[in-house]
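Q&A log
Question type: sequence-to-structure
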Amino acid sequence: MKNHSLRSEKGQGLIEYALMIALVVLVVVLALSLTGTSLADVYCNIVRQIAPDTAPGCSAYVEDEFITMGDWITVYGKADWSINDGEIEMRGGDQRIINTAELPDDYRVTVNPAVLEGGPGYGILFRQTPNGTSYSGYSFQVDKGLGNKFAFRRYDKNGVELGAPLAVVNTPGKFDWQGPHKVEVEVRGSTFKAYIDGTLVLTATDSTYPTGKAGLRTWHGTKATFGSFTVSPP
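Response status: OK
Response body:
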């Protein structure tokens, strides 16, 4: 009788533990849903930290090594660019190019490396909606011409740039303007974050454009080269 009672208590204890674990999982799932984060996002982020090149189920939406430009369109400027050895070189006047891939609302754009060879700066375009030779959306800019700043900007109908940036910050005093940099923009809901060489440098919020494509821009005589262009889950 005593052994039967012990077995019953152990069985009841296991059930209670299982219910407690299920409750914890439910709370975690609810908390993630409130922040707009899925379990898949959590899984991919963990796997990328452990083995960034082998993350099953976490593949990129765009992986462009600039072998050809078949997946790109010019939405502004004279398309004064060339590709060579897996890099695109953009030069001359104001140029804006967009990758044609359809993207989800939230994503991370990574350009590695980005090199400013001359001129005032370059930018990563995101949540762009092209319309013929125009567009609307956002950019993150490494902007020497603005007075050595990092800046988020918004472009409205016909690609008109708002006078004031959405967010702006001085670049670090020792920032190497002509050096190669890994530039990333993470887009989640109405919050945008920019990273240079893995360090968060600027955050902005705006809800005008909830979705759109990604691309690159230069302006005012800039000469810049860009290596791999990747768009992946945030």
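Response note: Residues 2-50 form one domain.
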